Amino acid sequence: MKTTSSFLLLALVGIASAQDVSVAGGGHGGPNSPRKPLVTSTKLQQEIHSSNLVKHAKQLVNFSKLSNGTRAFGSVAHNATLSYIKGLLDKTNFYDTVYQTFPYLYSEGSATFSANGSSYSTSWFTYGPAGDVTAPLVIVNDLGCEASDFPAAVVGKIALIQRGTCEFGRKIALAGAARAAGAILYNNADGAIGGGTLGQISRPDVGPYVPAGAISGLDGQALVASISGGTEIVGNIHVVAVNENRYTSNIIATTKTGDKRNIVMAGAHTDSVPAGPGINDNGSGTATLLEIALRLPRFSFTNAIRFGWWTAEEFGLVGSGHYVTTLSEQEKQKVAIYLNFDMVASPNAGHFIYDGDGSAFNLTGPAGSDHIEKTFEKYFVSAKVKSAPTQFNGRSDYGPFLDARIPAGGFNSGAEGIMTAEEAKWWNGQAGVAYDKCYHQACDGIDNLNIPAWIVNAKGAAHGIATYAQSLKGIPREPRAPAREVQATKLSYDQRRHLACGGEIFSA
């Protein structure tokens, strides 16, 4: 594992790119300029235009090209995204804007495997090292959980190991201890393993990791049968992987005006998955909040407004968790509410509001979350758009705020879930099709955005922010009980990776 410091590489890229985007406020008169109208939902909504949202989205696409089509945290493209946001905000002279910078482990890779000219569907193990190995396959005895399972013939060869009993990491480390050049694990059922982790960054007490991949049970069984029948199988494992600490940042922007004892906070994550540019997930939320922030300088308001653009959400709510855990209890009490916007322009869009009162899914948020849910329900009624509740389970950046007992809410337009026939009637969508067919894929670009749904949702975000910037009526403001420990920070690195995306954690 190595440490990089790429955060400062493109500090000027975003600012330079921002020059063709109009900025409301622009420093004219500063935050205390007189005769500004009081913000209202209607007035702020009128300031939100799809053309500006799309301009921001196109900038994010351009940045992704700096990092081979991704804006994963700590990449040049992600750092350019942050510079772009902060540059535009700073030009307004309306916010106290800071980077909150910290290191976090980045582990990403891919694996391919072929044997005797045939290619196999292969998955990579988190923490697995990069490498390219061509060598005969040797069957490992039993399940490869003990050093004695590895025959002497495995030296310099590719160990073929069945899944089962012990964790993947132990098997791969024992292969390294036996001086195998690489390892292929096959499932103990017919299907693919589908993904997995070595569980720890390294295992010096067991052995060194070697380049490895995972294949299906059927493929593995066929290879075992051929080798057992006397056929030499020469395989090639090719692993591309990065395992390193990366410095990355949240952006925290607080209005210079408004009551800072009663802060209305809204957030969205700025990073994508490594597989793609993340323009719906979550460029749409990023751009929505940025555009609202650029229009707010035209107004006055009662309560201070704070925006959080979170890093490394795709690695397990890392940025929002870091913010909440480093905030003092006194400062937590000042945050009256938190509004979250993650994926608001899905191509086959639904309109899902977090179930703050628990009436639909029996998971109730902190007192005041019910009021936020109703505020957004009323907005969608006024917009003549059907809404539906979605589970308030902490699987996005609002999760750490729930742990801090801060009232929270928000909405999204759907991810990998499948739209039902009834929902298709509500939203003029396609039944039996994912809300976002490009969820966590390379195709999550400009063409993946549903612009009509996005403008409805962006105006909805403006409605929520303007409503609570005016008044916190309905939100309890007596001192809250001390915050619980942020649940995400108690999980292992691998568990956190799956927290944000809802994936299954594979081990043995």
- Number of helical segments? 14
Cα gyration radius (Å): 25 Å
What structural class do helix, strand and pairing data support?
alpha/beta
CATH architecture of the largest domain: 3-Layer(aba) Sandwich
Which of globular, elongated, flat, extended, rod-shaped describes the shape? elongated
Strand content bin: 15-25%
Within CATH, the superfamily of the largest domain carries the name Zn peptidases
CATH fold topology of the largest domain: Aminopeptidase
> Number of domains in the coordinates?
2
Mean pLDDT: 92
Question: How helical, in percent, are the residues?
Answer: 25-40%
As residue ranges, the low-confidence spans are: 1-32, 502-508
Pfam family, one: Peptidase_M28
Organism: Hebeloma cylindrosporum
Enzyme class: hydrolase
Keywords: Aminopeptidase, Hydrolase, Metal-binding, Protease, Signal, Zinc
Description:
Residues 133-223 form the PA domain. Keywords: Aminopeptidase, Hydrolase, Metal-binding, Protease, Signal, Zinc. This is Peptide hydrolase. The protein has 508 residues and is of the alpha/beta class. The protein folds into two domains: 2-104 and 245-501, Aminopeptidase (3-Layer(aba) Sandwich); 117-232, 3-Layer(bba) Sandwich (Glucose Oxidase, domain 1). Helix content is 30%, strand content 22%. The chain contains 14 helices and 16 strands. The chain has helices at residues 13-17, 41-46, 50-64, 76-92, 168-177, 217-228, 279-295, 318-326, 329-334, 369-382, 399-403, 421-427, 451-470, 493-501, and strands at 2-4, 95-115, 118-120, 125-126, 131-139, 158-162, 182-186, 196-197, 212-215, 234-255, 259-269, 303-310, 335-341, 352-354, 388-390, 408-412. The strands form two sheets. Strands 1, 2, 3, 5, 6, 7, 9, 10, 11, 12, 13, 14, 15 and 16 form a 14-stranded mixed beta sheet that branches. Strand 6, helix 5 (168-177) and strand 7 (182-186) form a beta-alpha-beta unit. The relative contact order is 0.15.
